């Protein structure tokens, strides 16, 4: 009896400890949320306003020296910078180095932004470093030097984590732009990379590819080698101009060829990932060379890569990019495992990435594929319904996104039976909490989702579609994501002979919200 009461007491203590830890984590998420400014992103703060505050923050946190010693790979770009960073980190970890990876945004938990040796930072370490930074900054900030804004705080936290954990290499993804990004306090990275450039965040970065490229090239540093993925001519001219002003050797990293992987597949799927992998190979090779490991880098651009490079590239993983996940709530019964509800998640949110996303969706859903039935439906499930679940930030122009998605889908023989438009769940949540959207519909402003629906109707039916009030035949607006999920699950359960293939895109936040609901 005594031993059982001891184990019961231990269990109770563990449960109480868990509750305390959960409460502390909620508290931290609340504090982080308080740093999110209510200003629109196009506010001049994003144009380097008060940029000099970063120097004060580094002083307060005593990070200048640690950052100067850090062996950094710094990557900017419009599309593929997160994938490039993920591949680069995976290669160097496969080569035996300890790694730190800082990316954005997170999908379900803020700790995803800080990876140590390929794994999200533990809650324990995250809390330790959070309080260290928070308390020091709270003590030293005032009206003249306010607390850093949200992304700046996270970047400072990343520098603290990676320096304290003494990683061999820190791979940093730029949050937005380049020149005035919080990660750009690194004065002497080992190597810089520019992933594919395109039109995004134009309200902040400029209206032409040249202007956008000039902003991204703000990460170039005198004497630091730089690589770029192949770029449109206008962007390439701007990058080369900035590079020559700084005396930087800028080289084009060519896309990887499949044969270089010796029959292995890239860990991140999609044709476009060969571009990102090519850039990652160039960045990792240069880093190795600069650290005196010349014997470990590829001999040339055409031969198969060294095994450690292939292992890294094939094992790389990044949630929410060309990710396929089945809904276990619907696909739980043995007898109907072939006919299902499957989510195809891709956080595409620029015109070019919409096209890539559409081609990927076509590729992974076409009937003649042989894939494990555990991932997607097998051929025994005759009917399929293709459904679009979409939202995008209101700073983005849906007329630049939805036509690219629809036209590319149509050209590739994909027809959407239904389009669902929803607000992001996370806009109602504090960061990382499990609270739900408000229950009362009148609290929810759906004007943006209704305008997305009108654009979709116009694309399908011309001008008469804009005024078609009976649009429920091929599109619906839901007040919340859980309601849309319930609609999908109900339809899937009622139509067991049909496979529901749901493409979730337009916003990484939406992708994260769907992942959170499917994994609950």
Automatic annotation (TrEMBL):
Residues the record lists as binding Mg(2+): 104, 173, 201
Cofactor, free-text remark: A monovalent cation.
GO biological process: one-carbon metabolic process
One example GO MF annotation: ATP binding
Gene3D superfamilies: Mur ligase, C-terminal domain, Mur-like, catalytic domain
Cofactor(s) this protein cannot do without: a monovalent cation
Keywords for this protein: ATP-binding, Ligase, Magnesium, Metal-binding, Nucleotide-binding, One-carbon metabolism
Catalyses which reaction(s): (6S)-5,6,7,8-tetrahydrofolyl-(gamma-L-Glu)(n) + L-glutamate + ATP = (6S)-5,6,7,8-tetrahydrofolyl-(gamma-L-Glu)(n+1) + ADP + phosphate + H(+)
Chain sites annotated for binding ATP: 321, 346
GO CC terms in record: cytosol; mitochondrion
Enzyme class: ligase
Pathway(s) this gene product operates in, as recorded in its UniProt entry: Cofactor biosynthesis; tetrahydrofolylpolyglutamate biosynthesis
EC number: 6.3.2.17
Task performed by this protein: Catalyzes conversion of folates to polyglutamate derivatives allowing concentration of folate compounds in the cell and the intracellular retention of these cofactors, which are important substrates for most of the folate-dependent enzymes that are involved in one-carbon transfer reactions involved in purine, pyrimidine and amino acid synthesis.
Family to which this protein belongs: Belongs to the folylpolyglutamate synthase family.
Full protein name: Folylpolyglutamate synthase
């Amino acid at each position: 009896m005594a031993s059982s009461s001891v184990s019961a007491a231990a269990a109770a203590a563990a449960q109480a400890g868990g509750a305390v830890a959960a409460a502390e984590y909620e508290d931290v998420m609340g504090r982080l949320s308080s740093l999110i400014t209510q200003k629109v992103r196009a506010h001049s703060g994003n144009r380097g306003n008060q940029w000099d505050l970063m120097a004060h923050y580094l002083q307060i946190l005593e990070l200048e020296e640690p950052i100067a010693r850090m062996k950094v790979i710094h990557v900017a770009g419009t599309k593929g910078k997160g994938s490039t960073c993920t591949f680069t980190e995976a290669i160097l970890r496969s080569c035996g180095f300890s790694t730190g990876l800082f990316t954005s945004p997170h999908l379900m938990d803020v700790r995803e932004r800080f990876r140590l040796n390929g794994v999200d930072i533990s809650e324990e370490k995250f809390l330790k470093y959070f309080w260290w930074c928070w308390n020091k900054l709270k003590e030293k900030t005032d009206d003249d030097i306010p607390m850093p804004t949200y992304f700046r705080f996270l970047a400072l936290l990343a520098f603290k984590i990676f320096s304290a954990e003494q990683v061999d290499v820190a791979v940093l993804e730029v949050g937005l732009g380049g020149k005035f990004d919080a990660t750009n306090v690194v004065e002497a990275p080992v190597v810089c990379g520019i992933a594919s450039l395109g039109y995004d965040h134009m309200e902040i970065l400029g209206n032409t590819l040249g202007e956008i490229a000039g902003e991204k090239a703000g990460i170039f540093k005198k004497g630091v080698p730089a690589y770029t993925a192949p770029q449109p001519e206008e962007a390439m001219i701007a990058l080369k101009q900035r590079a020559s002003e700084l005396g930087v050797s800028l080289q084009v990293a060519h896309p990887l060829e499949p044969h270089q992987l010796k029959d292995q597949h890239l860990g991140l799927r999609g044709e476009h990932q060969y571009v990102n992998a090519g850039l990652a190979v160039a960045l990792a090779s240069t880093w190795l060379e600069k650290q005196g490991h010349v014997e470990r880098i590829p001999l040339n651009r055409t031969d198969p890569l060294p095994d450690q490079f292939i292992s890294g590239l094939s094992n790389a993983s990044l949630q929410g990019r060309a990710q396929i996940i089945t809904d276990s709530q619907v696909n739980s019964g043995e007898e109907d495992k072939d006919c299902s509800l499957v989510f195809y998640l891709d956080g595409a949110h620029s015109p070019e990435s919409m096209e890539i996303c559409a081609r990927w969706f076509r590729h992974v859903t076409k009937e003649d594929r042989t894939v494990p039935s555990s991932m997607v439906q097998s051929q025994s499930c005759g009917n399929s319904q293709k459904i679009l679940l979409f939202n995008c930030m209101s700073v983005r122009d849906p007329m630049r996104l939805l036509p690219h998605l629809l036209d590319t889908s149509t050209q590739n023989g994909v027809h959407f039976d239904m389009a669902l438009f929803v607000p992001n769940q996370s806009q109602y949540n504090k960061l990382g909490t499990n609270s739900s959207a408000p229950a009362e519909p009148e609290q929810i402003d759906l004007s943006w989702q209704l305008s997305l629906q009108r654009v979709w109707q116009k694309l399908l039916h011309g001008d008469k579609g804009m005024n078609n009030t009976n649009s429920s035949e091929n599109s619906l607006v839901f007040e919340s994501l859980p309601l849309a999920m319930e609609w999908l699950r109900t339809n899937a359960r009622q139509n067991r002979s049909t496979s529901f293939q749901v493409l979730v895109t337009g916003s990484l936040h939406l992708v994260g919200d769907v992942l959170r609901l499917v994994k609950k």
